[in-house]
Design a protein that fits this description.
Layout: H1 7-10, H2 20-25, E1 30-34, E2 37-40, E3 45-48, H3 51-54, H4 63-75, H5 86-95, E4 103-109, H6 112-129, E5 137-141, H7 150-155, H8 159-162, E6 172-175, H9 190-208, E7 213-218, H10 232-244, E8 248-252, H11 267-270, E9 276-279, E10 291-296, H12 297-301, H13 321-334, H14 337-357, E11 364-370, E12 373-378, H15 394-404, E13 407-408, E14 410-411, E15 415-418, H16 426-452
Parallel strand pairs: 3-13, 5-6, 5-7, 7-8, 8-9
Antiparallel strand pairs: 1-2, 2-3, 4-10, 9-10, 11-12, 12-15, 14-15
This protein binds pyridoxal-5'-phosphate.
The site of pyridoxal-5'-phosphate has 13 residues, from helix 6.
C-alpha cells in the first residue's frame, strides 16, 4: 500500500458501519470504474457485484451520464433556495409519466434517508392539515431498513442498528416481516402466509387505534430483512387495510426503484398504488446524490393552498441541478428498452444458476429475489432451515472469500446479495456466479477447519 494510504492516514476517515481498525489492516481504496468493473490503487480489478450499494444501476463511466453532469456543473452547480432550475423541472416532467397518473408531484432530495424522513413527515403534516392531528404513529417492519436519520431510523426495525442511539422518536410501531421462507404455519402457501401476516397487521392497527396511525412504510422487497419478497397478497392487503383506516401507505423503493427488479418500480409486480413512493440510490446511477418522494395527487393536494400549508421541512442540497441533470440522463438510460430487458434476462439466468449451486452447497438454504436483486440465504441445516449461529457469520465469510477473488458483494451474517449493474452481460454474470461458487466452497472449508479445531 502506498505511503499516502498508510494506517495513520487511513484512520483519519470513517466509513459507514465499518470498524476502521479492521479496515486499515486490509483496506480497499478504489480508484477507477468502467462498466461492471472497479480498480483499486494497486491496479487490482474487482467486479462490482453490488452496484456500489444498489446505486450504480447503469455501470461505471457511463458516457452520456458523465457528459450530462459535466455540462450541468459548468452551466450552474447550485441555485438560490427560492428558485428551481430547468433540470429539476425537466426531471419531474420526465419521471411522472413513467408512473400511473395518480402521482402528480415530486419532492427531490439528496439521499434515501432524507426521502423516507420527508415521507413520514409529509404523512403527519397531511393528516394535521386534514383535521386529523391525532394520527402520528408510523408502522413499519422489524427487519426493514429505512435510513439513518431520526424518523427513518425509528422506522428501521433492526435492534443492532437502533441500539446505540436509543431512545428513538416515539410513535413508531413494528410489524412482523412477511417471510415466506419461514411461514407462520408450516406448509402454508406463500399467498396464505401473506394473508396470515396481514391479519397480524390488521390486529396491530386495531390495538394501536386506527385513528392514531398516520402511515405504514414498507419496502416492496425487503433488502436487509434478507431480500424478503412478500407475496402479492400481503402487499394488496396492506393497501386495503390502510385505505380502509385512512392510513397513508408509503413504499420505500430506495433500492427497488429505477429498474432494479426488472421493471421501473417494484410496485408494478403487485399492482399496488401507495400514497407516497420514496426513491433514491439508482435514481442518478451514482453520478450525484439524488433521491425523491413521489406524491399521489391526494397527498399533494394537502400541500397546495394557503401560506403555511406548504411542506415544512427541507435540505440544502434538495433538488440540486447537477444531481437532477444526472437523474435526467440516468432516466434516459433506464428507459432504453434494452436496459430492463437485460436486467430481466440476465437476472433470470443468474437466479437459475444460483439455484443450481444448491446442488453443490448444502449451506445454501434459499435463493430469492427479482430482476438483478437476488438474495442467497445460508443455513446450517436445509431441512429445518436453521441458521448458522451469529458468531459463525457465514455470509461475511463468503463475502471475504469473494473479495479475495475479485468480486464485491453485499452480505450479512445469514445472507449474501447479488445486485450488479442492470447492464451486466450474461458473461459477466457467469463470472460473478463462478467466483461466488468458489467463495461459498472456501467458506464451507473454513467451517470444516473450525470444527476440526474443536470450535463449536
Ligand atoms: C430501503 C432503504 N431505504 C432507505 C435507505 C437510506 O438511504 P441512504 O443511505 O441514501 O440515506 C436505504 C439505504 O441503504 C435503504 O436500503
Amino acid at each position: 500500500m502506498r505511503e499516502r494510504f498508510s494506517v495513520d492516514v487511513m484512520r483519519q476517515t470513517m466509513l459507514d458501519f465499518v470498524q476502521m481498525r479492521d479496515f486499515v489492516g486490509d483496506p480497499l481504496v478504489v480508484e477507477r470504474g468502467e462498466g461492471v468493473r472497479l480498480w483499486d490503487i494497486e491496479g487490482r480489478s474487482y467486479i462490482d457485484g453490488l452496484s456500489g450499494i444498489f446505486v450504480v444501476n447503469f455501470g461505471h463511466g457511463r458516457r452520456e451520464i458523465v457528459d450530462a453532469v459535466t455540462a450541468q456543473v459548468a452551466r450552474l452547480a447550485f441555485a438560490p433556495q427560492m428558485a428551481t432550475t430547468t433540470p429539476e423541472i425537466d426531471l419531474a416532467e420526465k419521471l411522472l409519466p413513467i408512473l400511473p397518473s395518480e402521482y402528480t408531484q415530486v419532492k427531490f432530495h439528496s439521499g434515501g434517508s432524507e426521502a423516507t424522513e420527508a415521507a413520514i413527515k409529509m404523512a403527519r403534516q397531511f393528516h394535521r392539515q386534514n383535521g386529523q392531528a391525532s394520527r402520528f404513529k408510523v408502522l413499519s417492519h422489524y427487519r426493514g431498513y429505512h435510513g439513518a436519520t431520526g424518523h427513518a431510523l425509528a422506522a428501521t426495525g433492526w435492534p443492532h442498528l437502533r441500539a446505540a442511539f436509543e431512545p428513538l422518536a416515539p410513535g413508531f410501531v413494528h410489524l412482523h416481516t412477511p417471510d415466506i421462507y419461514r411461514p407462520l404455519v408450516a406448509g402454508a402457501t406463500p399467498e396464505e402466509t401473506g394473508l396470515a401476516y396481514a391479519r397480524l397487521v390488521a390486529e396491530t392497527i386495531a390495538l394501536e387505534g386506527p385513528g392514531t396511525v398516520a402511515a405504514l412504510i414498507t419496502e416492496p422487497i425487503m433488502m436487509s430483512a434478507g431480500v424478503v419478497v412478500p407475496p402479492d397478497s400481503y402487499l394488496r392487503e396492506l393497501r386495503r387495510l390502510t385505505a380502509e383506516h385512512g392510513i397513508l401507505l408509503i413504499f420505500d423503493e430506495i433500492i427497488t426503484g429505477f429498474g432494479r427488479t426488472g421493471v421501473p418500480f417494484a410496485r408494478e409486480h403487485s399492482g399496488v398504488l401507495p400514497d407516497l413512493i420514496c426513491v433514491g440510490k439508482g435514481m442518478s446511477g451514482g453520478y450525484a446524490p439524488l433521491s425523491a418522494v413521489v406524491l399521489s395527487e391526494r397527498v399533494a393536494r394537502a400541500f397546495w393552498g394557503e401560506p403555511g400549508t406548504q411542506f415544512q421541512a427541507g435540505h440544502t442540497f434538495a433538488g440540486n441541478p447537477v444531481a437532477c441533470a444526472a437523474g435526467l440522463a440516468a432516466l434516459d438510460v433506464l428507459m432504453q428498452p434494452e436496459t430492463l430487458i437485460n436486467c430481466r434476462d440476465v437476472g433470470a439466468h443468474a437466479m437459475g444458476r444460483l439455484r443450481s449451486l444448491m446442488d453443490r452447497h448444502p449451506c445454501i438454504g434459499d435463493v430469492r429475489g427479482r430482476g438483478m436483486f437476488l438474495g442467497v440465504e445460508f443455513v446450517s441445516d436445509r431441512a429445518t432451515r436453521t441458521r448458522f449461529p451469529d458468531e459463525v457469520a457465514f455470509g461475511i465469510r463468503v463475502q471475504a472469500e469473494a473479495r479475495r477473488r475479485g468480486l464485491l458483494l453485499r452480505a450479512s451474517g445469514f445472507m449474501l446479495v447479488v445486485g450488479p449493474p442492470l447492464t451486466t452481460t450474461r458473461a459477466e454474470m457467469d463470472e460473478i456466479i463462478d467466483i461466488l461458487d468458489q467463495a461459498v466452497g472456501a467458506a464451507e472449508a473454513s467451517l470444516h477447519e473450525r470444527a476440526l479445531a474443536g470450535v463449536p
